[in-house]
Amino acid sequence: MNNVFDFFRNLELLDWLTYIVGGLLIIFSLFAVEAKKLFDAILALSAVSLLSVLFFIVLKAPDVAITEAAVGSGLASAVMIFALFRIKAGEKK
Amino acid sequence: MRRIWAILVSAVFLYFLIGTYYPTLPEFGNIDMFRRVSFNYISKSTTKEYQPVEFKKSNGLEEGSANVVTSIVVNYRSFDTLGEVTVLFTAALGVGILAGFRKRRIEFEEHRVLSIAIGIVFPIVLLFGAYVFIHGHLTPGGGFPGGTVISLGVLLLMLAKNEFGVTDVAKHTEQVAGSGYVLVGLIGMAMAGTFLTNILPTGTVGELFSAGVVPIVYTLIAFKVGAELSNLISEMREGDKA
Predict the structure, then answer these.
(1) pLDDT digits (tens, 9 = 90+) for B25-42
(2) Helices (H), strands (E): how many in chain A?
(3) What is the mean pLDDT of the segment spanning A3-20?
(4) How many A/B residue pairs have CB atoms within 8 Å?
(5) Most buried among A44, A89, B101, B154, using CB within 10 Å?
(6) Does B141 touch chain A (CB under 8 A)?
(7) In Å, how far is B240's CA from the nearest CA of chain A?
(8) Domain containing residue A76
(9) How far is B70 from chain A (nearest CA, A)?
(10) Would you state the pLDDT for residue B105?
(11) pLDDT value at residue B211
(12) How many domains, in total, are found in chain A?
């Protein structure tokens, strides 16, 4: 038990950030797999992309971070949502 | 049952990852990868000995872009980038064919706040995209992210104004920019003997007009990617009027 307290006491700001963001990444990816509605899954996938941008910055890859922020969380989710709308419009007929 | 199998497989995978692979890794976030991988790329010379480069002072290097990623992607491996652009074109073509089966157009309700704010936000988004690709050889960024940011501005415009549609101008821009890239490569072949060679003087590291042909190529790529992705979004959305 003492080890656990020491672990949390010795964490710095960057460590806190990486642990919290990493945990959120795992939660959002699990949610994206298990979500009942496809729309929620797309939103969770977009959140995963947006959180991984933080990791790319920590790992000193700003080029990849900019591309991931623009493509992964912006454009890809928009295209997927449009595709979802199309599928739903096809199902109604 | 499926879920139990998934948990089992991921548990075994994680056990081996943490047990055997994790101890060999250096501490998280504290390693300067570029010191090991691309020292010679940073010293701006792959043929001569290593010599330190000073920002805003060194000139006449093998190539003069301050951003190492750009110097690798557009200078040493420019043919690879040409292939990447072609891959993007093929993807857009596939979307165009699949979305070509016309269905109902996706309509948006115009929101008053968004439709007024777009007048302020859209120029800023365009400016940021232009900054990202014009400064691609100095700061992180480049043609692909810049073009994508511009197409995201177009997407925002599409969400704000319901009747807005991308015209044929996007297609023509894409054609001109795409063939311009190949043309730059052919000019290099005519003047120096190799496809996509850097023919212009490389200038001083850190200045806007440096790195020879890289800013030109990145501007062309950004126009191509921006036009292509705006067209792709428009293809996904357009259809018969309801």
Answers:
(1) 777 666 666 666 566 677
(2) 5, 0
(3) 76
(4) 60
(5) B154
(6) yes
(7) 12
(8) 2-92
(9) 9
(10) 79
(11) 76
(12) 1
- How many helices, marked H, and strands, marked E, lie in chain B? 9, 0
Write out the two tokens for B142: 């480049």
Q: How many residues does chain A have?
A: 93
Tokens 């042909």, residue?
Answer: B213
Determine whether the interchain pair A60/B99 forms a contact, defined as Cβ–Cβ distance below 8 Å: no
Helix axes A13-34, A38-58, angle to 10 degrees: 160
State the Cα–Cα distance between residues B149 and B125, nearest whole angstrom: 7
Q: How confident is the model over B161-172, as pLDDT tens digits?
A: 888 888 888 889
Mean pLDDT of all residues in B142-163: 89
Q: B130 — contact with chain A (CB < 8 Å)?
A: no
Give me the count of residues in chain B.
242
CA distances from B206 to B16, B73, B137, B209, B242 (A): 45, 18, 8, 9, 53
CB contact under 8 Å between A70 and B142, yes or no, is no
Q: For B43-103, where are the alpha helices, taking DSSP H only?
A: 68-70, 78-98
Give backbone dihedrals phi and psi of B59, rounded to 5 degrees, phi first.
Answer: -140, 170
Mean pLDDT calculated for residue range B14-23: 84
pTM: 0.81
- Cβ contact (<8 Å) for B140 and A58? no
